[in-house]
Amino acid sequence: MLDLAKQRRSVLRNDHHLLRFVAILILIWFGAITSLGQTSVQEFRNVLRDQANFTGDDFSTLERGELVVKLLPVKDKREVAVCGLMRLQVPLAEGLQAFQQSMTQLNRKSILEIGKFSSPPSLQDLQALTLNDRDLEDLKTCVVGDCKLKMSAAMIERLHKEVDWTAPGHRSQVTLLFRQMLLDYVRDYLARGDAALIEYHDQSRGVRLEDEHRSLLDASLYINDFAPELTHYLKTFPKPELTNVENTINWTKIKFGLKPVTIITHVTTYTRRTGGMPQLLVVSKQLYANHYFDSALAVTALLNIPITSTTSDSYLLYTNRSRADALGGSFSKQKRNLVEGEALTNLNAVLLQTRLNLESSSNNKTNSPSRSGKQKIVEWLFGGTRLFWWLVPIIALIVLLGLRKRNSKRNPTSFERHY
Q1: E strands, 290-340, in order
Q2: What is the pLDDT of residues 130-175, one digit of tens each?
Q3: 245 and 268 Cβ atoms separated by less than 8 Å
Q4: Which of 23, 58, 271, 324 gives the lowest tally of CB atoms within 10 Å of its CB?
Q5: If we measure between CA atoms, which residue out of 60, 101, 127, 132 comes closest to residue 291?
Q6: Cβ–Cβ contacts within 10 Å for residue 400, how many?
Q7: Segments forming the whole domain that contains residue 278
Q8: 232 lies in a domain?
């Protein structure tokens, strides 16, 4: 009996040690999972310091509740990149709504036509889209390598094959074909993703949008370091599955520079929780623009970043990377200086207006039924291009107008011949 009691005590001790060991493993595993899912303030600052050139003074500015707006490093001379960061003292959905209001207030008068592609897309989605007289005339002489609208070689070939330019109703033919080509393009993109993205052949130098967007995405702030699942989703769309994601394809025709611009945009909205903290991530990707723009990618991140187990900081981070062919030509340094200055001024104005909207909202609370954060996001994103187009280099066009006037008695520049 004594030996049996000793054996039982030995087994219990061994079981106790085993249970302690398993418990420790569980705690280590859970701690690892939690730490992987959280972004510390220091990690966030390190990324801003390394990738966006944030300094100690910038972080002090944020601590005082002020805005920080900066240029981002670029490797392509056609690119202008900016970011803006502000702290939030409100729920993320409320901060998003205030940001949306500031964008709308700035851009309301510039939108000429607007639409959203249904699921599946149909020609009816583009019924409101028109071509202006100048674009219609320019398409008559459009050839591969020399076209005044941004088009692929296949699109240019279709214009020659499918339009009877001598017919009295050729304008209607061109408009209908233009809509059909955009519809075919969107359908192909939804089926094949980036492999279907256009390669512009309006100039002698082709521009492959697949390469452009891969480069812009690889350089994007925050999501590559802290939301790699979203980056993977964007690169392999539409094949992978990711929960809590919404996609919309929008088109917008806006007043811009010398000509109205038609832009098609893919907007991806991702909601998630990291370490129990909510985040809203919105990526706006330009699929097509018929003038000026080569490519553009904007990321809006509304973040809760834990400080301790019970406290956190909330931020609105906006980044925009846009490439325009006009910045790659002559006088590019002068144009870049003006464009970058204007981009910083505009973004600063939007964030200041966001703060005013938040203050106004807090002082004028109403009892009207509140909408969900997701509803607010969808309403904001309907226009699609609001996220980025106003930051792309409109000032460059003003500079070029001045150069055109000054050089009117000289030989025309390549830009003047093209536009």
Answers
A1: 293-306, 312-324
A2: 999 999 999 999 999 999 999 999 999 999 999 999 999 899 999 9
A3: yes
A4: 23
A5: 132
A6: 21
A7: 41-418
A8: yes
For residue 7, being part of any structural domain is answered with no
Q: What angle do CA 72, 319, 70 make, to 5 degrees?
A: 40
**Which token pair is 131?**
């071509």
Cα separation of 23 and 41, whole Å? 30
The answer to whether position 24 is within a domain reads no
Which tens digits make up the pLDDT trace of 44-67?
999 999 999 999 999 999 989 899
Asked if residue 222 lies in contact with residue 47, where contact means CB atoms within 8 angstroms, the answer is yes
Task: Evaluate whether residue 159 is within a structural domain.
Answer: yes
- C-alpha 187: how far from its chain's center? 20
| Other CB atoms within 10 Å distance of the CB of residue 51 | 18
Contact 182, 128 (CB under 8 A): no
Q: Which two tokens stand for residue 62?
A: 């944020």
- C-alpha torsion 351→354→358→359, nearest 10: 70
Total number of domains constituting the chain: 1
C-alpha–C-alpha distance, residues 28 and 45, integer Å: 26
Amino acid type, 196: A
Cα separation, 318 vs 365, in Å, equals: 26
pTM: 0.78
Structure tokens, 241: 């599955």
For residue 127, give both structure tokens. Answer: 């019924």
In angstroms, the CA 54 to CA 68 distance is: 9
Residue 151 φ then ψ, to 5°: -145, 160
Rg (CA), the chain: 26
DSSP, res 294: E
